[in-house]
TrEMBL record:
Keywords: DNA-binding, Transcription, Transcription regulation. One of its GO terms (molecular function) is DNA binding. This is MarR family transcriptional regulator. InterPro entries: HTH_MarR-typ, Tscrpt_reg_MarR-type_CS, WH-like_DNA-bd_sf, WH_DNA-bd_sf. Residues 7-139 form the HTH marR-type domain. SUPFAM superfamilies: Winged helix' DNA-binding domain. It holds the Pfam family MarR_2. It comes from [Actinomadura] parvosata subsp. kistnae. It comes from the Bacteria.
Length: 146
């Protein structure tokens, strides 16, 4: 494989898109005082309140330690609330506050605009095929040793 061939691999193009998407999301979310992992956390809590730190970390593609920092910052900003002690076990159930719901709604509109910009060259059928293909790729790699 030549160096030019590397640029024509699916993996390289996926990483290129991921980097461009992250940069565009970071820029859009900056206006809301959020980072991309913070937005992902708010989005997940908006759909499934009281997810555990581990579940939030997996969903946001960060470590549990990083998610602790994300949650602390969101709590300090008044966007999420967590009890001082766990009602059972060790997990502290996290919920969006009213302010968190408002910020999420505003940020979501900007993130969806980024997604529309990214997929503007695709019609609905092409977008559905791409989603299925990306899902199949992720499933093919899930649990593999490399």
């Amino acid at each position: 494989m030549t160096q030019d061939d590397v640029y024509r691999t699916v993996g390289y193009q996926l990483k290129r898109v991921q980097a461009a998407l992250r940069a565009a999301m970071d820029a859009a979310l900056r206006a809301h005082g959020l980072t991309t992992p913070q937005y992902a956390c708010l989005e997940m809590l908006g759909q499934r309140p009281e997810l555990s730190n581990a579940e939030l970390a997996r969903g946001a593609f960060v470590t549990r330690q990083s998610m602790n920092v994300v949650l602390r910052n969101l709590e300090e900003a008044g966007l999420v609330s967590r009890p001082a002690t766990a009602p059972s076990g060790r997990a502290l159930p996290t919920r969006l506050t009213e302010a968190g719901e408002r910020v999420l709604e505003a940020a979501r509109a900007d993130v969806l605009a980024v997604e529309r910009r990214m997929t503007a060259g695709l019609d609905r059928a092409q977008a559905e095929v791409l989603l299925r293909q990306l899902d199949a790729m992720a499933e093919a790699l899930a649990g593999s040793d490399g």
